[in-house]
Specification:
- The chain has about 90 residues and is an alpha+beta fold.
- It has a single domain, classed as Alpha-Beta Plaits, CATH 3.30.70.
- It is built from 2 helices and 5 strands, in the order βαββαββ.
- The mean pLDDT is about 95.
- This is Acylphosphatase.
């Protein structure tokens, strides 16, 4: 079953390659959506994919896909009404 979530990721997640390594993980797993830096220093991820694969992706995000990053907290919000994406993009 397809699922969509918003992940608000806090920690050392800007200026360390976090968005680009998140994209690599998403592409490898077949996850679609976006990742973007936020003004408060966090990173916002909108991710869509099959339930089990999406859980793998979320686990990778929580573990920080980049060795120079650090994830302190992830706020996960299920999304209901999301436009379909055909790829995973770094925004901004």
């Amino acid at each position: 079953m397809q699922k969509a979530v918003q992940l608000d990721v806090f920690g050392r997640v800007q200026g360390v390659g976090f968005r680009w390594t998140t994209k690599l993980v998403a592409d490898r797993l077949g996850i679609t959506g976006t990742v973007s830096n936020q003004p408060d220093g966090s990173v916002k991820i909108i991710a869509m994919g099959p339930d089990a694969i999406l859980e793998q992706f979320i686990g990778a995000v929580k573990a920080s896909p980049t060795p120079s990053g650090r994830v302190d907290r992830v706020v996960q919000t299920p999304l209901q009404d999301v436009s379909a994406c055909h790829k995973f993009s770094v925004v901004g």
